[in-house]
Amino acid sequence: MRRLVALLCALAALPVSASTAAADNLVFDVTLPAKKVHEECTRLEPGESRRWQWKSNGPVDFNIHYHRGEEVFFPVKRDGMRGDGGTFTAKTGEDYCWMWTARAAPTKIEGRIDK
């Protein structure tokens, strides 16, 4: 019993991450300062999909993008949103990033990306 209590105390002392992954699902809860970004990235092969949803307490610019050399491609791009969701299916194998940019004020964003 003492070992269990010691283990629980040690776990409670660990830092809490802004995002957690469980069984290929990603859950996040972040507060962005004004004009700052948050990204969640993953590799997708052609035909692979991810369900996603998020909400914020203020407007943010949102996109799903990938890079090829110096070029950036935006399969999804939406400005001034307070929430969104859907299913994204990759047409090509790439490292895709879901990205949020806070506007003029600090903004809290919570959401998930599911396999």
Quick rundown:
The radius of gyration is 17 Å and the shape is globular. Strands 1, 2, 3, 4, 5, 6 and 7 form a seven-stranded antiparallel beta sheet that branches.
Structure explained in plain terms:
- Strands 1, 2, 3, 4, 5, 6 and 7 form a seven-stranded antiparallel β-sheet that branches.
- This protein has 115 residues and is mainly β.
- The protein starts with a helix and ends with a strand.
- The longest helix is centred in the first third of the chain and has 11 residues, at 2-12.
- The chain has one domain: GOLD domain (Jelly Rolls), CATH 2.60.120.
- The radius of gyration is 17 Å and the shape is globular.
- Helix content is 10%, strand content 66%.
- The protein is built from one helix and seven strands.
